[in-house]
Write a structure and sequence with these properties.
This protein is an alpha+beta fold. The protein contains 14 helices and 32 strands. The strands form eight sheets. Strands 4, 8, 9, 10, 11, 12, 13, 22 and 25 form a nine-stranded mixed sheet that branches. Strand 31 and strand 32 form a beta hairpin. The structure holds ligand 9G3. Ligand 9G3 binds next to strand 22 and strand 25. The site of ligand 9G3 has 11 residues, from strand 22 and strand 25.
Length: 574
């Protein structure tokens, strides 16, 4: 006899009002649906319904991890400071690392991540190349003392992460596991019902770390990304490759134009009645030696300082005073007539534009039709712009779309950073001791829960995907006192439970409206309403929460009508 959950017994205190500190849907709805409760800023309790969802997400994560051959362990949250001294990271982190002393005055931290711990674990026991590769993972609470916890579970100070670590004797082996984990992470997002994009961090990114972030598209997301609707290209606007689409300014020769009071791209475009994409924006910086450099990008784009820093060692933008000291008229800077020794570096997408609309290096004047190659020369071409929606996809040429994303998981190639620092070596085939090559892979489990709600909600509440819903179907007897209706509802609930569905019955003595509102708020994927009128025709009403569609179903054919969902439920199990 599979149990039917009873709402009269379930601890799920739903609320009518939004919590005052909730700014986004998932925070509001998880609290109102009686799934989480705040203990302190960025610290939450999961109530029974929240736990049921958490358990399903974790089950999906475990299935996908185990399928890769990774083995589950559980490391402590309490980590000895010594290990962080060995890795040299104890002082890398400020107050974000939650430190404490035990009764013997020994230093500890509450683990924000577990690279040190896992490396110390294996360095004494993973000794031979024959034992490699090995991947270990855990699902564990993590602690990061965020300066401004917000958005409920999305940016909390204690959160649940699945973190995996892999150990290899070669880069190829690491790459293989990295690819397998990336596929598994895609599966996890799919099975959790997330609309996501894998976002490669630009390989040249600072520190050269190879990593890929899995972004769940959501307006509440903190990450800004672009993605291609036609191929799998996606990029974090911080570092993604940019292919701008500047427009040519029609002119047969360079002409100097008086542009009184024009000091911005918007004003220049307006003054000349052209698109901002037909203008060229100048940015002035200096390199590590203090030499001034002039950068030119399409007028409708922003300079990506991370990218500029990759082209110019020690790049920094000049302040207004420094621009003046360099003898340059801010707002009218251009490549023609620059003071001696100032390098001209231009964004690659400007190669396609031979005549520029750009400052004339004289306050109040601009050039139109300045011709690249004859009126001025570009010393160096580079990808300098912040990629944005409307740019062309560098892979397939389609028009990129913009979105905000929640980083729900991430795969990293660590190399030997920790194994070298902590003397974690294995004996290689040639008998020499070599530091492990490592990878690490994290899924924000509690963050995934919130991301699912961000993507699956409407004005009435949450719309849980079947695979992660706290239960599959809620049976709602309209009048629990009616001794005709109620027993039928009970029987339907029991039959569905025996049939393998997770069933809850709203056996509370409340008005129908109250029950419907609660069912929609909590977001049971399916609702079956049992009422006197329907029973007269031998029917009940089956409602699908995600689409709102309702159908009157004859009692005799209810099991058949539910079969559509049974199939879907099974499909999602691995
Ligand atoms: C710290 C603190 C915060 C941190 C870290 C260390 C982020 C830290 C990066 C990672 C990398 C991967 C394994 C799972 C996947 C992510 N925030 N990171 O190392 F001390 Cl206070 O955690 N770790």
């Amino acid at each position: 006899m599979t149990d039917v959950m009873r709402l009269t017994e379930l601890y799920a205190p739903t609320l009518k009002e939004d919590p005052a500190d909730a700014e986004i849907a998932s925070h509001r709805l998880l609290v109102r649906a009686g799934m989480i409760r705040k203990v302190a800023s960025g610290v939450y309790t999961y109530l029974p319904l929240g736990m049921r969802v958490l358990a399903k997400i974790e089950a999906i994560v475990r299935e996908e991890m185990n399928a890769t051959g990774a083995q589950e362990i559980l490391m402590p949250a309490l980590q000895p400071a010594e290990l962080w001294h060995e890795s040299g990271r104890w002082n890398d982190y400020g107050p974000e690392l939650m430190r404490l002393n035990d009764r013997h005055d020994h230093g500890f931290c509450l683990g924000p991540t577990h690279e040190e711990l896992i490396t110390a674990l294996v360095r004494n026991e993973l000794r031979s190349y024959r034992q490699l590769p090995t991947t270990l993972y855990q699902i564990q609470s993590k602690f990061r003392d965020e300066i401004r916890p917000r958005f409920g579970l999305l940016r909390s100070r204690e959160f649940i992460m699945k973190d995996a670590y892999s150990f290899h004797s070669s880069q190829e082996s690491l790459q293989e596991t990295y690819d397998v984990m990336s596929k598994a992470y895609g599966n996890i997002c799919e099975r959790c019902g997330l609309d996501y994009r894998p976002v490669e961090a630009d390989s040249g990114q600072i520190g050269g770390s190879v990593t890929c972030e899995f972004m769940a598209l959501a307006d509440a997301g903190e990450a800004e990304l672009v993605y291609c609707p036609d191929c799998d290209f996606a990029a974090n606007t911080e570092a993604g490759a940019c292919c701008a689409h500047p427009t040519e300014y029609e002119a047969s020769a360079m002409e100097k134009i008086e542009t009184p009071g024009v000091a911005s791209i918007a004003e220049l475009a307006e003054f000349l009645h052209i698109e901002e994409s037909a203008t060229v924006k100048a940015m002035v910086g200096k390199d590590a030696d203090g030499k001034v450099v002039a950068l030119f990008i399409p007028g409708d784009h922003e300079l990506n300082e991370i990218k500029a820093g990759r082209v110019i060692e020690g790049f920094e933008l000049l302040t207004d005073d420094e621009i003046k000291d360099a003898g340059l008229p801010k707002g009218s800077i251009g490549p023609v007539g620059l003071p001696e020794g100032i390098r001209v570096i231009a964004d690659e997408s400007l190669k396609a534009v031979s005549r520029w609309v750009v400052g004339a290096n004289e306050a109040g004047y601009h050039y139109v039709g300045a011709c690249q190659g004859s009126d001025f020369t570009v010393d160096q071409w580079a990808d300098l712009s912040v990629v944005k929606a409307g740019d062309t996809c560098p892979h397939c040429g389609a028009v990129l779309e913009g979105a905000r994303g929640i980083e729900v998981s991430q795969v990293f190639q660590l190399g030997d950073k920790y194994s070298k620092a902590m003397g974690a070596v294995y004996s290689a085939e040639d008998g020499s001791d070599q530091p492990f090559i490592m990878g690490c892979y994290g899924v924000g489990v509690s963050r995934t829960l919130a991301a699912i709600v961000e993507q699956h909600n409407d004005e009435y509440g949450i719309q849980w995907p079947l695979a992660v819903a706290p239960a599959h179907v809620c049976v709602i007897p309209l009048n629990v006192g009616d001794d005709e209706v109620y027993p039928v509802a009970e029987r339907i609930a029991q039959n569905l439970a025996n049939d393998g569905f997770e069933v809850v019955i709203d056996d509370r003595d409340e008005r129908p409206g109250f029950k419907f509102a609660d069912a929609d708020l909590i977001g049971w994927p399916l609702q079956i309403v049992v009422g006197k009128r329907g029973l007269k025709e031998g029917t009940v009403e089956l409602k699908r929460r995600s689409t709102g569609e309702k159908q009157d179903v004859a009692l005799a054919t209810l099991s058949e009508a539910m079969s559509a969902f049974r199939r879907f439920k099974r499909n999602n199990a691995r």
